[in-house]
Design a protein that fits this description.
single chain, five-stranded mixed sheet, Nucleotidyltransferase, domain 5
């Protein structure tokens, strides 16, 4: 098979995206569909496979050129066995996802929770840590050019670092309290906004109609004090988590998938990181936006199977 192509699946709590990529990480075709978590495990699995098939069928390329399928999933996984050990936002706990994808799609598969390092903002450095802010907070750690999954697949579960002060902590979907994703994910930001509106706080968010993370960032940029406080809180804990990760991994670069906020959020994250990190752990360290934007998960997932 010449000019091999790879399918990357970015599986989230709201949507599943499938991208067809070349060996150099170029995204050739992209489709998206609903995850439909509320409909149960079988529907979610059917939607994942259907999205992958549709990506190829709607592209100008044939299945014969597809060499493998990679899936990025925001949960605790056993990458070697291809099993989802636990996931908070999808009904896939216990699923042998690698086996399912290979059976449904007829191609070798690999699962992980990596992101941008293959062909995006991680190029040019051997060590990077990626945060993806969406329904939860996904993560990926690359050291020496290799994805670190860890002994039991928990490497890179950045969203479940218990950082939030007890007085502010709420229960996370994982069952613990005070996890990073309860405040720094899009879901966490919306939760804080709804709570503020529910308390009757004077804020333009009360008139926003549908409360979304984008609405919160837009209001903050316009000077709304309540929205700005929510963004500052999300940035504070994100930067604080990086300060802790820097002591363990000491990466050259932190990459943040932050399509809805860009530099508005990142400048606050950098301030928090520098306030909490030890000097030697922060010297020369970059905090940058993901170059691949919303497609980072798809391209990173495709990269998982490039070397199979």
């Amino acid at each position: 098979m010449t000019d091999k192509l790879y399918i990357g699946l970015d599986i989230g709590g709201t949507a599943v995206k499938a991208g067809l990529c070349g060996a150099d990480g170029e995204l050739l075709h992209l489709v998206e569909g609903p995850t439909e978590t509320e409909c149960g495990r079988e529907r979610v699995l059917d939607n994942i496979a259907a999205c992958a098939r549709r990506c190829v069928e709607e592209s100008p390329f044939s299945w014969e050129r597809v060499a493998g399928v990679g899936a990025g999933i925001p949960g605790q996984i056993d990458a070697e066995r291809g099993v989802v050990e636990f996931i908070a936002n999808l009904p896939l706990t216990g699923v042998r996802l690698k086996d399912y994808l290979e059976s449904a799609l007829g191609r070798p598969a690999r699962i992980s929770n990596d992101g941008e390092a293959w062909s995006g903002a991680g190029r040019g450095v051997s060590s990077s840590v990626t945060y993806t802010l969406g329904t939860g907070v996904g993560g990926g750690i690359v050291i020496g050019g290799r994805v670190i999954d860890g002994f039991s697949g928990m490497g890179g579960e950045l969203g479940h670092m218990a950082l939030v002060a007890d007085s502010e902590a709420v229960r996370c979907g994982c069952g613990k309290t005070g996890c990073l994703e309860t405040v720094s994910s899009a879901t966490g930001i919306v939760r804080m906004a709804r709570e503020a509106v529910g308390r009757g706080v004077r804020t333009s968010l009360a008139d926003a109609g549908e409360l979304t993370a984008k609405a919160v960032f837009d209001a903050a940029k316009a000077g709304d004090g309540t929205a700005l406080g929510i963004v500052d809180r999300a940035a504070h804990y994100l930067g604080k988590s990086m300060a802790l990760v820097a002591l363990i991994v000491n990466p050259e670069r932190f990459i943040v998938g932050v399509a809805k906020a860009g530099e508005f959020l990142l400048e606050r994250v950098r301030e928090a990181f520098h306030a909490h990190a030890l000097e030697r752990a922060r010297q020369g360290v970059e905090i940058v936006a993901a170059e691949l934007g919303n497609n980072a998960g798809v391209i990173g997932a495709a990269g998982l199977v490039r070397d199979l």
